[in-house]
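Deliverable D5.2: sample structural annotation.
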Amino acid sequence: MFENIFVEKEIIDSPRVQSILQKLKGTPTLIDSYTDYFGVTKKPYLQKRTSLNLYLAHKKGTLVKEAPPAYGIEGEPHYYFVHAYNCIYECDYCYLQGHFDSPDIVLFTNFDEVANDMHSLLQNRPKIWFHAGEFSDSLALSHISGELPLLFDFFQHRTNAYLELRTKSINIRELKKLSPLKNIITSFSLSPFDIARTHDLKTPNLNLRLKAMKELDNLQFPLAIHFDPIIYQDNCIEDYRELLDELTQTISLDKIQYVSLGVVRFPSNVFHQVQKNYPTSPLHRAEFITGPDGKIKYPKPMRMWILNKIKELCIEYGIAADKIYLCMEE
């Protein structure tokens, strides 16, 4: 998978780094800091198709950050931590193509410090949500990164802490080795089959994601759903009705912990990269505007019509209204 492996000198002897290296082929190159290489010389996003490097690094700075408004269920505090940069998948709308100057993968190995920061935030708080997968997929490389047992151990002993693992992956084999916890929710991003086939490049298809959800549900792992990003096209609402039909044949929807609804949206620099990387994408035929927040998205009346229609569908299929929230909408 990786053409080159780079490891920061200060962490080369740590047990976790050694465990990761045992799973990989090739001799690592020792470096002082990943920041001396990663993104220093701009590497085209689509070069990930032929040449992808891996960095193992110690993350510095703020490790656990407060999430922006409308990031999760309203009325509860939300934070996120970054366990990795970049993703092996290639969705044509992905904001990562304009966020970093490199598609290479960085895995951060200092989970002990992340755990300490989460522990501090939990003091005298009745409930806090933490989210993984902000700049990467939570499960796609979990067989290499090895952080899932560490996460489960931390959250097993802290019942006022909740963790969301956001994913489009079907790489659930490491998850299945663990005992499910009520406060760790695996949330799958889903789109109707044709939309996923057109836009979710290099990802497992819808049927495979539904199969992975069924396996986890049978093992009693709590699940959630992200219908995000919703990309409008003719018969969009009927496409989501068909998707909900397929979901009901996979799992009981009243067991879903929550559903997030969000329409496709871009910071301007990301949209520029989308135009460059995917010039024939149907996204370029959309009726986008630049909103007051500077993001490129559908006009607000159109966004709210789409979101409310799909919310109504979810309720029709048995998902409680208070389990549905609109992601990144004021």
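Annotation notes: Residues 300-316 form the longest helix (17 residues). The chain has one domain: 4-326.
The annotation will be released with the project's public dataset once the embargo ends.
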